[in-house]
């Protein structure tokens, strides 16, 4: 059984012994899973969104938490990464981190503490409807790129312009807190689980 764990938000604990590389850009492919063209497309999406909204969204793809001295829990690990990179404006607390641990089959979207509660559900929609289907089909780069675009369109852009953040796509009747189960072709079971905590702070 292969499990993908999808979590939103963070517990604001320090990185401790966690090894977080210096951010050299807005995309860190530390697992070397993206081609040059794929990375360029994702970086272009990140640049466009940041230029248009003024909000920093970063993506980190790692082999596993063990490779970076991470603690046992994904929440602690992602919090340390978010804070080490200092994402977002210090006053607005509007940074966003999309963290993927390839070998651990884990993904976490971390929202800065400046976002309203409905941003949590909007992030879950991005995971369930955009990133997760692509990852289940083995389309990692496509899922990341689409996830970045949707994160800006559904969360960062409305927040930056003062518009209301819509928690879910129009016509959706999915619950805000759920255990998402999907079955891959060939009978491999993939799971998506959301666990809530306090939002990340700088």
Q: Care to give the gist of this entry?
A:
By secondary structure, the protein is of the alpha/beta class. The chain is built from 4 helices and 7 strands.
Word description of this protein:
The chain is of the alpha/beta class and 202 residues long. It is built from 4 helices and 7 strands; from the N terminus they run ββαβαββααββ. A 5-stranded mixed β-sheet has the order 1-5-4-3-2, with helices on both faces. Strands 6-7 form a two-stranded antiparallel ribbon. α1 runs parallel beside α4 and α3 packs antiparallel against α4. The longest helix is centred in the last third of the chain and has 22 residues.
Write the layout of secondary structure elements.
Blueprint (H helix, E strand, L loop, with lengths): L4 E4 L18 E3 L6 H18 L3 E6 L11 H12 L10 E6 L4 E6 L6 H19 L3 H22 L17 E5 L5 E5 L9
Parallel strand pairs: 1-5, 2-3, 3-4
Antiparallel strand pairs: 4-5, 6-7
Helix/strand-derived category reads: alpha/beta
The biggest beta sheet is recorded as:
5 strands, mixed
Measure the end-to-end span. 36 Å
Unreliable stretches: 5-16, 170-198
Give the total of beta strands. 7
Mean pLDDT: 79
Give the helix proportion (percent range): 25-40%
SSE succession: EEHEHEEHHEE
Q: How much strand content do the residues show?
A: 15-25%
* Sequence of strands across the biggest β-sheet: 1-5-4-3-2
Radius of gyration: 16 Å
Shape verdict = globular
Number of helices: 4
Considering the chains and any ligands shown, give keywords for the structure.
202 residues; alpha/beta; 5-stranded mixed β-sheet; 7 strands
